[in-house]
Give the backbone structure.
Amino acid sequence: MVSAALQSLGAAVVDTDLIAHALSAPGGAAMAAIAAEFGPEFVAPDGALDRARMRTLAFENRAAKQRLEAILHPLIRQATEDEARRVAAVAPYVVLVIPLLVETGNWRQRVDRVLVVDCPTEVQIERVQRRSGFDADAVRRIIAQQATREARLDAADDVIVNQVEFEALVPRVERLHHLYSRLAAQRRPESL
């Protein structure tokens, strides 16, 4: 919601989750490598990644997760950089939505600021359950494999605590938009 609000104010948004889904969709650029690495049983009948099967394997087998990341992360990084360059010409600044920014470890040096949209863990569990239909234990296992809330907050330049109705966040999002626009304008060379 925060990235959509920034986009509605004029920012360009590049979402790495959407990129990852496109790469692992039918005909996606990662699918041949995924099928070769993990076998045809990880390809759904439509040609997309069998996400449920891969999720189960990745959470049970750290080496398998690393093999999947070795395929996806370079492709995600390249597609994100390509898209960011493309949209930067038409927006005051670019927002990269990177849910695993801290875990991947190499994004921080590629961005000027990090905005963390935070909420208490129990709120996060409830939201994931509503969105994905996972039970609470499954969500806790997923969260346990991610960077801690404290690590994400330590990486942040800016934080929005999202545990209220979105309308209550709008003034904070607008202030950040003005800040980001001003900072981006200071970085751009004067046109001659």
About this structure: The first strand starts at residue 12 and ends at 15.
